[in-house]
């Protein structure tokens, strides 16, 4: 696969364009489904980019929408072809959160709130291994290693010399206090966290227990933003058996406002580094 082709992003852009064409035609997803003798859920999945789109799907939809400009049809067909190619993460086999990885790989910036754990992009290998083992106790050693390798590969976006991911992380104090692996693992993890927080494109803030109730009590979430104006921001909510992706402007705005409150209630950058360093010393005892 060409390095500049991200199948997940291609599916999103293609889905957005197909939705635009449907709305220009004044048709509902149900009406389109009836014309093509398919389920309404299929049309919805094609439009939200959660399902790969075949060139036949594009051809049929363009026929329903009476798209007369062949250049538009050809462009959409090319996007459909690219969307069915594989990203780097597919070489690791079936990854439960592959859609998210595709979005993260193409994102320009990422804002994360983590209430329980150090976020994956800032984890050490030892912390990641202990975390997967603890969270998925029935997982095989080979599967654990695969998940850890994928996590390490994802981190290349953070440490890249060119076009690194702009990362802002708010960590609840619980993420620093929860011993994952051992005290040694935790000390090394917190020292690693301090080191990465000094990168110009990485910001880490700690939300201390003393804050009390705050807008993030409902759990972890991430906001992904993209360079291309055609790609809307996405809120990612991780689940046990399935994940949720929110793209409506009002939903994204609500979570963005929540994030601003979390940042305001957290320790500032220097205070956070000092807090993490003091906590790391506790694990050395």
Automatic annotation (TrEMBL):
Residues 18-72 form the HTH cro/C1-type domain. It comes from the Bacteria. GO terms for molecular function: DNA binding. CDD domains: HTH_XRE (cd00093). This is Transcriptional regulator. It comes from Streptomyces lucensis JCM 4490. The lineage of its organism: Bacteria, Bacillati, Actinomycetota, Actinomycetes, Kitasatosporales.
């Amino acid at each position: 696969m060409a390095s500049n082709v991200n199948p997940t992003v291609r599916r999103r852009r293609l889905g957005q364009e197909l939705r635009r064409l449907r709305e220009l035609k004044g048709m509902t997803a149900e009406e389109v489904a009836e014309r093509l003798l398919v389920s309404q859920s299929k049309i919805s999945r094609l439009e939200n980019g959660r399902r790969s789109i075949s060139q036949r799907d594009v051809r049929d939809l363009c026929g329903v929408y009476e798209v007369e400009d062949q250049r538009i049809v050809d462009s959409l067909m090319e996007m459909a072809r690219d969307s069915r190619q594989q990203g780097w993460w597919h070489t690791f086999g079936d990854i439960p959160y592959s859609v998210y990885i595709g979005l993260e790989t193409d994102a320009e910036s990422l804002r994360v709130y983590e209430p329980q754990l150090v976020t994956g992009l800032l984890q050490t290998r030892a912390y990641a291994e202990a975390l997967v083992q603890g969270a998925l106790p029935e997982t095989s050693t080979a599967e654990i290693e695969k998940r850890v390798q994928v996590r390490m590969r994802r981190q290349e976006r953070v440490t890249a010399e060119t076009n690194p991911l702009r990362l802002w992380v708010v960590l609840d104090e619980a993420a620093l206090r929860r011993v994952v692996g051992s005290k040694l693992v935790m000390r090394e993890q917190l020292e690693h966290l301090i080191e990465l927080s000094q990168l110009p494109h990485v910001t880490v803030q700690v939300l201390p227990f003393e804050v009390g109730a705050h807008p993030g009590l409902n759990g972890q979430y991430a906001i992904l933003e993209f360079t291309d104006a055609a790609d809307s921001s996405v809120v990612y909510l991780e689940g046990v058996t399935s994940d949720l992706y929110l793209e409506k402007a009002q939903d994204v705005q609500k979570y963005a406002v929540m994030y601003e409150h979390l940042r305001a209630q957290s320790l500032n950058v220097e205070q956070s580094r000092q807090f993490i360093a003091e906590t790391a010393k506790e694990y050395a005892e």
